[in-house]
Write the structure tokens for this entry.
Amino acid sequence: MRNSTDRMLTRIKSVYMFIQENGTVTTQELVDEFGITPRTIQRDLNVLEYNDLVKSPSRGKWTATNKKVKLSS
């Protein structure tokens, strides 16, 4: 894979792990934690939501689903 794809997948994995470890988090908390734009975080969350790994119980808040995932390095 290309470097940009590797970076994106690593970032999305990190976002997922952060949500899983912290329970419900806000979009702004993710922006602050990862130092990226709200638009980039939203794209990452869309990927995670599409794959049923996170859900938004209320606007701007995110939580991990119970879907089983094997995380590899």
User: Anything to note?
Assistant: DSSP finds three helices and three strands in the chain.
